[in-house]
Amino acid sequence: MARRFKPVTPLLTVDVVIEIRSRGRTGVVLIERKNRPFGWALPGGFVDVGETVERAAAREAKEETGLVVHGLRLLGVYSDPRRDPRGHSVSAVFTARASGTPRGMDDARR
Question: Fewer beta carbons below 10 Å: N end or C end of the chain?
Answer without folding.
Answer: N
